[in-house]
Amino acid sequence: MGSKIGVEYERLTCKPDGSITNEGVLLVKHPYKEAKYVDEGSQAQFEWNSQPHRRIKDLTDEYLRQEDALADLCAEYGVFGLPASENGAGERGRINLHEKSRASAYRAIFGEGTPEKLFPWAGIHCHIDANQPRLVEQFNALTALALVSAAFSSTSTINYEGKNGINCQRQKALQKDVFAKIPEERGYIGSKDELVARDVRRWENWKNAYVDAGLEAAEFAHKFKLDNTGYADIRHRPEIGSGTFELRVYDSAPADILMGIAALIQGFNDRILDQNIPVTIARKDDDYLFHGRIVVLPNWKTLQSLSELQIKSGLEDERIRDYLGQIVEFAGCQLDRQDAHYLKPLEAMIDSGENTSTQLTAHLQMQGCSAKEEGRYKPEALKTANRFIRYKQQEAVERLRHAA
After folding, report:
1. What pLDDT is recorded for position 32?
2. How far apart are CA 12 and CA 1, in angstroms?
3. Buried/exposed 87-104: b ≥16 CB within 10 Å, e otherwise
C-alpha cells in the first residue's frame, strides 16, 4: 500500500527588494481560514505543515492550494514567502527572535548568542511512516539517504552574517557549531533500544546543563521532551500517527525541489519495505549498492566523508553525483509515472552538478557581487541573493502548476 509522507516547510517573509522583514508572525496570527501557519524561532519565519499523503501528486495539490492562499495573505503585507535561511539582509539589520521561542533555554544551556546562531536557519522536515518490524533497517537506510541527499536542497551558501565559503552553511552550523557543547550522537543503530537510549542521553545531558546554569529541572521538563530536544538528523516521533521518522537535514528550498525530495524519500523507503529488500552495512570503505535484491549502505566512515563533501561543495564532486544517481534511480523504480516525474529536478541537478547554492554563487558573480573585500557580502548583494531565490521559487511553483 505504501507509506504516507508529510512535510514541514519553513520560509521567511521578504520584501520585493529582497530584505527580510518580520511579518512572518503576522501571517501566523492572521484569522484567514484558507491558510494556517505555525510559529518558528524568529518573527520573520512561518511554517506550513502538510497533511500526510500516499501520493506526491496529492501532496503537491495541497501545497498549491496553500500557495494560492499564501499569495492573498502576502499581498496584504507586501511580502512574499522566501524558501531560504536568513543571510543578513534584514530590513533593520538582524531579524527579531520570537517571544514564544525557547531562546532563554538555549542561552542557559549553550551560552549567549546561541539563539542568534540557531533561529536564522529555515529548513524542510519530512515525516514518513515508521515501520515497526523493520525499524532499525529503516532508520539506517534513511540515514544513508538523508546525509548525502541534503545536497539537493542547499540554499544556504551564505550564512546569517553574510559570509560564504561552503555550499551549505546550515548543515555545518547545526552539526558542528550551535550544539558543540553537547554534540549530537549520530550514525547507524543496532536496535530500537539504542535509538531510545540515544534520545534519553541527549535529554539528560541538556537537562543537567540547564540545572547547572541555576535553573529548575521541572521547568526544563516542561519545555523539552525526548522527541523535541536537540537536532538529530532523523527523529523518531512515535506520538505522530502510528509513528514517523522525521528527516531534518534539508534546507528550505524552491517548491519543486521540496516535492522532489519527498518523492525521493518515499520511493526509496517504500521500495525497501514493499519489496522486502534486505539492508546491510558495508565492511569496506567506499563500498555501497542500491539494488532490487539488496541494499548495501556505506559504512559510517564513508557516509561521514560523503556528507562532509556535499556540505563543502554540493553536487560538484563526481562521488556525490554517483551516490545520489544510484539512489534516485533506485527510488524512481518504486514510483508510478505520475509521481516519478517529481524526481526530475533532482535528476537535472545530478546532470549539471549544480544545486541552488551553486547557481546563487554564480549569479552573484555575474552581478559583480563579491565577498572577498570585507569577508562578507554587502547588504545590496544579500538582497540580490534573496531576489534570485524568489525567482527560483516562482519558476518552481509554475512548473508544479503546469505538471498538475
Report:
1. 78
2. 36
3. bbbbbeeebbbbeebbbe
* Cα atoms in the Cβ-side hemisphere of radius 13 Å centred on 366: 9
Closest CA to 57 of 336, 325, 265: 336
Low-confidence ranges of the chain (pLDDT < 50): 93
For the chain, what is the domain count? 1
Query: Which grid cell is 224?
Result: 523539552
pLDDT in the model for residue 95: 61
Integer Cα distance of 302 and 306 in angstroms = 6
| CATH code (residue 320) | 3.30.590.20
Q: Is 229 left (phi over 0), alpha (psi -120 to 50) or beta?
A: beta
The grid cell for 80 is 512574499
Q: What is the pLDDT of residue 34?
A: 78
> What's residue 100's pLDDT?
67
- Which domain does 234 fall in, by range? 5-403
